[in-house]
Each structure stands twice: as structure tokens, then as C-alpha cells.
Amino acid sequence: MSEAPKTDHAYDGIEEYDNPLPGWWKWLFIASIVFSPFYWVYYHNGAKGRSIEDQYGVALAENTRLQFAEIGDLKVDGPTIAKFMAKDSWVKVGESVFRANCVSCHGREGEGKVGPNLTDEAFKNITVLADIGKVINNGAGNGAMPKWSNRLHINEIVLVSAYVANLRGKNVEGGRPEEGNKIAPWPEPVAEEESGEEGDAKS
Amino acid sequence: MDTHVANQSEQADAADGTTTQRSTVLESFSYDDGIVRLFATATIVWALVGTLAGLFVALLLVMPTLTEGIPWLSFGRLRPLHTNAAIFAFAGNAIFAAVYYSTQRLCKARMWSDTLSRLHFWGWQAIIVAAAVTLPLGITQSREYAELEWPIDIAIAVVWLLIFGGNFLMTLINRRERHMYVALWFYIATIVTVAVLHVFNNLVVPAGLFKGYSVYAGVQDAFMQWWYGHNAVAFFLTTPFLGLMYYFLPKAADRPVFSYRLSIIHFWSLVFIYIWAGPHHLHYTALPEWASTLGMLFSLMLWMPSWGGMINGLLTLRGAWHKVAADPVLKFFVVGVTFYGMSTFEGPMLSIKSVNSLSHYTDWTIAHVHSGALGWNGFMAFGMLYWLLPRIFQTKIWSDKLVSLHFWTGTLGILLYIVPIYAAGLMQGLMWRAMDETGNLQYPDFIETVQSIVPLWWVRVLGGALYVGGIVMLCINALFTWFGRPDSYDVPVYSAPRLTDDYQDEPKPKSDLDDVPMLDSAKSLSVWARMGWHRRWERLPVKFTVLTTLAVVIATLFELVPTFLIRSNVPTIATVKPYTPLELAGRHIFVSEGCYNCHSQMIRPIVAETKRYGEYSKPGEFIYDRPFQWGSRRIGPDLAREGGRQSSFWHWRHFENPAYVSPGSVMPSYEHLLTEEMNFDAIAPHVKAAWQLGAPYSDEDLNNTAEVAYKQAERIAAEIVAQGGPASTMDTQAVALIAYLQRIGIDLFATPEPEAAENGGDAAAETAVESEDAASETEADDETE
């Protein structure tokens, strides 16, 4: 045991060695101090693209591109909803939106909780397909259905409408009883060039 | 034992005598160990209470319906009780026991006033009891670790600063040991800084005896609170425990401290740097980015100063490791110091912004604080207690085996607590941010992310139970040791010379480099590095206290002044209006119920987060938020954009039974809000306080508060009926809370009213709801650009 010199201090019997600062300790401490101004200058010299807000803007644009570059900005109308009802991969996006925002009232499977059952044949505020988009956009029933126009991207509204439209007729067990009126079936999906990938719309 | 101590002190005197003047009159004195017995007993009792409360709230998370219908047993109200009991009751009393035992011996002086010591003890216990009563009743400021309301805060200031601080400083001044040992420096820093933090974080305008409104709002309030919150950890749970370590560890190991010089450098760097680090609790929030960067950089710089304490603790045991194997007291200390090292490495790591973006709001933070609290604070306190018990009760410890068993049970308990909770934090954080290949959230349903960690919460309950089990062993051992005490305690009398005024400092140390041909400045630097200058400070307690205060206050002002003075920190948003009287009352309920314990109100500019919750939060949105409600943990989802997201009737059903609308929810029922009546006449003081603090309210709001509030309640009740809910709900507390929830985060999207007449808040709020969409569309477009 290498004995460094002791100091002449003694307090209630406690003595102290006069060991120097451990080298690695001293240099790591100095390194952390030296690092700081460089970090500061890099992130706070006003250069564009380095602030958290700038980085968020880039990430959001990237995400929007990833999601919607293929389809551009959609319109919330019947034909568009009908078209996407048949596109499995896009309905899945709608499902994701549904699970993030709608399940607390309409239930995980759309069976209805505080909000109506979406899997039966009766509808309260809807007569044609386009109405689904309208109700989601603007709300209904004195605010029982909140409006989502300021919370969701317009494409998300179309896609969640398509997902919800597809729920019709699944008649999930243990759902809320039917409310509203029976309405005409949705129009047949427009036979389009991609209709080959239609697949099972109920997934 | 006692004669041994006396001999050593005499030796020390003899050593002193050679360097000091010939000693004058010998004075006789004894130590007040009665006060140590009181504080040690209180430590043990509160250790049990505080950890049992923790175990109980841990159970509530896995069994949310356990206390169905009993408002004062809800998680939101009891979690603060657990944290306060653990910090201020358990750790607090442990600190006091350590201070009263060691200070007297390090100063060779009895505490200055036995009366003040007793007032301190009973005053502090009364404060703890007041906390234990008011917190379950929902009387809270909602500032984490500063929840207690203003009358109790005043009592804390008096007991802490005047009674405890005064008694301590006077003891220092009347000491018989020339120099102050490093433990005392840490005690000084503790007393001064906690007083400063406590006073400036708790400045309020009272609205009645049980409610105060913070003089700070929104961003500034958050800044102040986390300046406090972080430094409460620093100066309540770190510095006093370092002081404790510096006294009890070398005593128990009977080894000299590793390095005097290291203790000086790490003390001052710790004190100066710690105080800057608070903003790292607010990364990616609406706090200005420069402050957040400062918080991160100073946290990184804090790593080595913190480890200085660990090194001095562990290396003091060099050559004594065989004792560690045999002595459970040292085992507790070794594990405690090791956990200190782990936590103070992890702290700087968590303060790195990108790491924090993952860890913030998750259980990772909970695991981090528990490795500190259970490992460092708990084990240091237990080690100290087991060393003290035979000495203060002047008998053998009842069972050595039980001490060992406590050590192993406690260690296993800590591991079983923190390992699953680290995993839970990491898992939930990763699930929140996970995106699928189409750019959508992989786990859009929040409850799914909660349900996946519930099994880990169960393991935590088991770990916690083991840790509590260890404390039960401590209680038994302490009780039986106490039974074995002598009929009357032996009070040894010591003698030492009084300090003379004509002390000459030791001669300036010679440079090692005197014979080496080099610059004079290098030589004087090497002399400076021998710390003779600091040796002088160590015999001047008042100067030392002033310098410590300066270090803390100056560092604080560097951060605080710009936060308050630079206007661009909080850009004004024209559409943000004060809460209506009813919303303010609802907000009060939100605070009382402790909703912030599980729900944040702060959406960070991170894509996965804005996709889940909506547009990220802006600083200007919070200018009427007193106190801020940003939260620190998301056991439930963020509520910053909750307004208008659900129907009012949905909220009603949700309060009644959260699991009905959200199967798998761990939120307890708040059915009592549906039946308890809203006292509309009690709203006025709240509006008045907000108005005094600068929120613009109309005369109607101020003078006719109850009526204005009732009208809004009727509108919401009508809404609930129209949405299919029950009739006549307007008199309930739930409706006020719904009014508040429907208001959160919607002002940002309101279109500015064209020169509207000042006819009160609700009208403004309504326009806001009406016209959200247009504004938000442009907002979203801007972001994509």
C-alpha cells in the first residue's frame, strides 16, 4: 500500500491523506469543461437547422413525405373514400389513426362505448359515404362527436373514414345496440387499375 | 469507546498546541446525545412510513380499483405523500441525526442551544404530520417536492433556517476545534442552499389559508420549480449525505480520508455547478433552448465533481476491505456510495438531450431516483443508524445477524425494484416513439403501452416489499437494542482549550518546484494547489458560509435573470386568454386531485409525439398557468391538447369509470366528483388572486364570480344532456373539471377577435372553440415547409 503523506489534520480522530487528485478524474473534469463552449457555439450560433424547432420541422416534413408523397393531398368526398376503402395498405393507416384517436368512444373494434356502434347497419348522422368524412371533420351531436379538422391531416381524415366505412356490417359482439336509421349500402368500389391489390378489406 | 474518543481528542489537541499559541484555559463540556436519539428514532419510524406509502402507491398502479371511491386514498394524492415522507421525513431526520452527532464532535462543542435543538425536532415532526394530513386532503401546490401549502412553508422556513441554521452556525462559531472538517462544509452548503431554494420557489399570493397562487407563471414557474426540484435532490439528498459519509465512513472503517485536496475541489465544484443543472428536467419543453442547453452542459460538468465524493469514499477503504467483509455497517456504506456513483453517472447521461427525449416522462426517471434514494440515501442512513444505535443507546446491538439480513434483503429489494423499472421505462419510451414503415405510430393506443409494462410493475411491488421488509428488521433491531439500554445514560465530560484570537496560519507551503528552473507563476500555482489558502477559510465559519452562499446565488442569477428578463423567451400569443372562473375552479380540482402525477401537459416537438397528441406546446400558451402543470411522468396520456378532444359526456363517463371507456386503463375512478357539490361562492378568491397576479378579468368576473361560473356550468350540463348524459349535473365538481379540460390547449388555434368588447372570459373561450380549424391548418402547413 503506497502511503501518501498524511496532512496534520485530525477531527474527532479522523485523519486525512494529502493524496493528489487522481489524474483521470482531473482530466475528465477538464474535458467536460472544455467541451461545453464548443457545444454551445455549435448549437447556439444562430446557424439554421440546428435548433430543436428547425430539426422538428425537417423531421415532420420527412414524415409527411413518407406517408403521403404517393397520394398527395386528398379531398374528403365520397369517391375518394370509396377508392381508399379498397386499398388495404392505406386502410391500415386509417386504422392507426382510429386506434390513436377514436377507440376511447367507439371501442377498440368500433363496437361503440360512449359513441355509437360503427359495426352495425344503423347510422345517426350518416346517409351517404361522404358524410363520414364530414362528421369527422366537423363533429356531430352537439359536440358528442368532437371535430377533428384541426387535429388530423386531411389525408388521415380520408383514410380513417375509409377504415370506419369498412367496419360496417362486421357486427362485433357485445357492441352497443343499433342507433339511428338503416341506410343504403355503400357504393361498389370504383373498378380501378389498382383494384388487383384489393385483398380482404375487412382486415 | 468513550475513553478512546477522549484520548484521541487530546492527541489532536497536543498536535494543535505545537502550531497554535500556547493553549489557555481548558473548558469542560459534554455532548447532547439525547437529540441524536430523538432524530435517530424519528428516522426509523419515518423510514417505515415513507416506504410503506411507496409500496401502497406501487400497488395502486397494478390494482387501480383497490381503493375505489375513497378520494384521499387515490394515487394522485398519495404519491406526493410518499415522496415527501421519503425525502423530508426519512432522509431529513437522518440528516439531522448525522448533523447533531457529528457536528458536536467535529467542533468539540455541545450544540449552542438545547432548546433550539428540541424546537427543531418537534417543529420538524409537526411539519411532517401537517404534510401527512394536508396532502391526502388534496391541499397541495402541485410543485413536485414542494407540494405543501404556504402556511406550512412558512413553518419550514422558520424551523429550517432560523432554528436549525441558527443553532448550527452558533455552534460553529463557539467551536473548540480550530478548523472545520469537510463534513461541516457540506452541512453549511445544505442549510444555506435549501433555505434559498425553499423561499424563492414558494413565493405565492394566498387565496385563503389552504391555497396560494405562485407569483411565477408558465415557463418561468416551470424553470423555478425545477431549479428547486433538482437542487432539492442536490442539497437535501446529496450534500448532507456526503457530509454524513465524510464523518461516519472513516469513523466506521477507522481509516484516514483518501484525499484532502480532492475534498476541496469536489466540494466547491459541486456546489457551484449543481445549481445550474435544473433545466435538464425540461428538455424539449417550452423552456427556451439556451436554458436547456445550459442545464445539459452543467450536468455533464457535474459528473466528475460528484464522483469526487465517491472516490473519496471508496478509496478511504483502501487497506480496510477485509473489514468490509466482516462489518455490515461498512457493507451498507460501500453499496450506498456505489449507488451514488451510479446515479451520478446516470444523471449526466440522462441530461443529454437525445437520451432525455427517450427517457423523459417514462419510468426510467423513476428507476433513476430510486437507485439514488434506496441505494444512496437509504443505505447510507441505515449504515449510520447501525453504527449509532450501540453508541447512543450505550449497549450492544441486539442482533448482528439481523443487520446482515437487512443488508441482503435491502440489496435484493433495490435490484428487484430498479431493474424491472429500468426495463419498463426503456420499453415504454421506445413504444411511444416507434413508427411503422408507413410513417405512422406503431402503438397508437396509449393504453397498449401501459399494459405492456404492468407485469414489470408487479415485480417492482415485490422489490419494494423486500426493501420495506429490511426496514421492519431495522425497527425490530432498534427496538430491542433500546430495551437493552442502561438505566441512565453515561454522559462523558471532555475538556479542550477555548480558541484564541491570535492564531497564526501555518506557513505557506513550499513549492515542490523550488529547485527546478521554471517560471515563477508555475511555482506559485503549485503552491496554490497545496490549498493553504483554503486552510485559512476553514477556520472562518462566517466567511465560509458567505462564500458558499455567493457560489450558489451567483450561479443561480446567471440563469434566472435572463429567464425572467428576456422577452423573446416567451413570445406573446394574442389569442391566449385567462381561464374563466369556472375553468379556474376546475383547474384547482385538477391540482388538488394530483392529476399532474400521471398526466403531463407539455407536448414536445418530436414527430412521434405531435402525431399522438397534436401540435407541440408553445411558451406563450402558459402565461396564465399558476402553477404550471407540465408534469414529469406519463402514466396516462398527455393532456396539453385535451380541450375539445372528447365530448363532455365522455369525460363524465370517464370519471365515473375510466375502464369503461378505456379498457385496461390504470386510472382510478373519480366518482366522487360526480356527486360532490361545487361551491360556487368559493371561486371568487381564486379569480381575485389570478387578477392580482396580472390576469385581465372583467368587473363582472371579479364581482359576480359565482354567477358567471354557474352560467358556464349550466351550458356544460346542457351539453352533457344533449350528448346523451344525465340531467342536472351543473352543481357537481366534475362539471368544473370538465370546463377546465375542455379549455386546455385550444387558445393557440383561436382566431383573434376583432376588437371584441371585454365581456369576460367565457365568451372568448367560446369563440376560441368555434374557430380552431382555420388557424391550425395554416399552423400545420408552416411546420411542413
Question: Secondary-structure map with pairings?
Answer:
The complex is a heterodimer of chains A (203) and B (785).
Chain A: E1 6-11, E2 14-17, H1 23-44, H2 52-68, H3 78-85, H4 88-101, H5 103-106, E3 122-123, H6 130-138, H7 154-167, E4 181-182
Antiparallel strand pairs in A: 1-2, 3-4
Helix pairs in contact in A: 3-7, 4-7, 6-7
Chain B: H1 2-19, E1 26-29, H2 34-62, H3 75-107, H4 114-134, H5 150-173, H6 182-201, E2 204-206, E3 212-214, H7 218-253, H8 260-274, H9 289-316, H10 321-326, H11 328-351, H12 353-359, H13 363-392, H14 400-433, H15 446-451, H16 454-483, E4 494-497, H17 520-528, H18 532-537, H19 541-565, H20 581-592, H21 607-613, H22 648-656, H23 658-661, H24 672-675, H25 684-692, H26 699-703, H27 705-722, H28 733-741, H29 761-770, H30 772-784
Antiparallel strand pairs in B: 1-4, 2-3
Helix pairs in contact in B: 2-3, 2-4, 2-13, 2-16, 3-4, 3-7, 3-13, 4-5, 5-6, 6-7, 6-8, 6-19, 7-9, 7-11, 7-13, 7-19, 8-9, 8-19, 9-11, 11-13, 11-14, 13-14, 13-16, 14-16, 20-28, 22-28, 27-28
Description:
The complex is a heterodimer of chains A (203) and B (785). Helices cover 43% and strands 7% of the residues of chain A. Chain A contains seven helices and four strands. Chain A has a two-stranded antiparallel sheet with strand order 1-2. A two-stranded antiparallel sheet of chain A has the order 3-4. In chain A, helix 3 (78-85) packs across helix 7 and helix 4 crosses helix 7. The radius of gyration of chain A is 31 Å and the shape is elongated. The termini of chain A are far apart. By secondary structure, chain B is mainly alpha-helical. In chain B, strand 2 and strand 3 form a beta hairpin. Chain B is globular and about 90 Å long. At the A-B interface, strand 1, strand 2, helix 1, helix 2 and helix 4 of A face helix 1, helix 3, helix 7, helix 8 and helix 9 of B.
